[in-house]
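#dry-run=false #mode=assembly
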Amino acid sequence: MVQVSTQPQQIVNGMDDSPRGKLLSAAARLFRDQGFDRTTVRDIAREVGIQSGSLFHHFPTKEDILFAVMVEVIRFNTERLRAAIAGKADPAEQLRALIRAELQAIIGDTREAMSVLVYEWRCLTPQHQQEALALRAIYEQLWMDALEALRSAGRLKADAFITRRLITGMTSWSSNWFDAHGSLTIDQLTDIILDRVIGEHCA
Amino acid sequence: MVQVSTQPQQIVNGMDDSPRGKLLSAAARLFRDQGFDRTTVRDIAREVGIQSGSLFHHFPTKEDILFAVMVEVIRFNTERLRAAIAGKADPAEQLRALIRAELQAIIGDTREAMSVLVYEWRCLTPQHQQEALALRAIYEQLWMDALEALRSAGRLKADAFITRRLITGMTSWSSNWFDAHGSLTIDQLTDIILDRVIGEHCA
DNA sequence: TACGCTACCAAGCAAGCGCTTGGTTTGTAA
DNA sequence: TTACAAACCAAGCGCTTGCTTGGTAGCGTA
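#status=ok
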């Protein structure tokens, strides 16, 4: 037995490889494939190789597992956004980086947990919805700052809020059709969407 | 007792006011508010004022209720699309009409059933998914015909399939933020989205 | 060796679920 | 009045669900 690495974290769906992380990652996949309600605690337990009752040593309720999945993926992707725009001064380049990062989240490495975030939202308790919304607000503020900067620079004529919502629609829906093995790359899709926003395609 | 009207149909969610139609309309609202799985047959029954067992006089299973909701709303909105483009020769005007009709479906009179269509898709049996997909294909073909016509006329540079998917994202996501009582009208949103597609905003 | 902590098992409970059953009411038309 | 089907009720069956309970294995520390 050899210690392969001094950095044992292997990120999947934004979760580490601790028991808790593996549990969340498995839950995220099941929640996306079957939905939260159709996924039983026995399903999750089987996936990680323990008894169903043992899940409740890690989380007080099944709903807390869902909440944890969402919190982790929001946090992880907020950091991804931050990293994407770090050091970029041009607001148009910032926007491109944001779109790319969001696509990466939705159809890339955290796609399962992101899908859960969109489709299982109402399975959260109102209390947890509020807490998750607070985290999401931080994420959205990064977008709004960039879009407002674009507007100030005169490169965005439309309303920033509506623009953000149209972008959200385009990116989030991509999870329903984008084929990772197809000919269209994430970078290409990024530019196509960017084009719909700042309209260089018809200059 | 006076017969108020010779046309007793009052369309809600694309359903008529027969027992079956009222049942479907109530189910659509419950399915949207709580999700299919969290909605019990007792919930639906209570809503229409009958016993839960009596539901199964109308539908063989609970899932068949969901399927019926989806079939009705797809059919209804396919007709709406057809009516919208009828008599319009200019492909750009056709596109505007299509976007407006789809927004009407998603945030207007059939919004509850449309939301169910998007969010409860995987609750259908594979067999029913296939049947619903066949109906949806007809709907989508109307879109593709108009977009291809636009391309032929040289007024759409982007790929028609991708364009359609971006539009789908923008329109379907609007159900999550559009406020029917706000200052933004459906017609205004229609033009904003149309602008993202044929790009007249940066001429 | 003894301790304490984390992680887990084996068994099962109480509640809620979709759906069935056998019988009754209601509306319609001959 | 009779006939009949559609619509509905009252009761509950069999099963699955999230979660609980009481106990145990493994491991690092002293």
